[in-house]
Design a protein that fits this description.
The chain has helices at residues 25-36, 41-61, 90-93, 103-107, 115-122, and strands spanning 9-16, 64-71, 75-83, 125-131, 135-143. 34% of the residues lie in helices and 28% in strands. It has five helices and five strands, in the order E-H-H-E-E-H-H-H-E-E. The chain has a five-stranded antiparallel sheet with strand order 1-2-3-5-4, with helices on one face. The protein has a single domain (17-143), classed as Heat Shock Protein 90 (2-Layer Sandwich). Bound molecules: adenosine-5'-triphosphate and magnesium ion.
């Protein structure tokens, strides 16, 4: 502790539900930062996918939220916290292909029901909490020894 190299870098982005103009900006900035910091391509790729799918879920399914990232040389913590409808059945939401996205969203190319399963697949640690009518919290850790 106190060692400059071990200090965490924190990034925070505000996300607005249904804002398809700015959709993907937060995760693409996260990806660029991780690249510049010298993380391995595989770590950058996994963190970028997790951040993107988390960001899109807030924009598509929730009213508003925040995407937070805490970066240390050893791990990348990604948190997506939103205010929205929440998820009644998390087990069902985690199934590949399950989606409640309406036709309008599917026409934009989303709603394959692959976001949450892919987040879990690419994360080293994954937690999801949700309260119906209140919102959802995702916490993902990617181990990132830069070697
Ligand atoms: N932040 C959220 N708030 C409320 N519901 C959510 C949230 N994230 C996911 N869900 C619910 O879980 C379902 C599955 O999510 P998932 O990300 O796997 O698929 P999708 O977003 O519907 O489609 P895709 O991610 O493939 O574009 C969603 O359709 C939605 O019902
Ligand atoms: Mg999704």
């Amino acid at each position: 502790m106190g060692d400059k190299a071990e200090q965490a870098i924190m990034l925070e982005f505000t996300l607005q539900g249904q804002d398809f103009i700015r959709a993907g900006e937060a995760s693409s900035e996260i990806k660029q930062r991780l690249k510049k910091l010298g993380f391995k391509p595989d770590v950058v790729r996994r963190a970028a996918i997790v951040a993107y799918e988390s960001e899109m879920n807030v924009i598509i399914h929730a009213r508003k939220g925040t995407l937070r990232v805490e970066i240390t040389p050893r791990k990348i913590l990604i948190q997506a916290l939103d205010e929205g409808p929440g998820i009644a059945d998390i087990e069902q939401a985690m199934q590949e292909g399950f989606s409640t996205a309406p036709d309008m969203i599917r026409e934009l190319g989303f709603g394959a029901g692959m976001g949450l399963p892919n987040i879990k697949r690419f994360a080293d640690e994954f937690k999801i909490q949700s309260r119906v009518g209140e919102g959802t919290l995702l916490e993902i850790i990617i181990h990132a020894d830069k070697g």
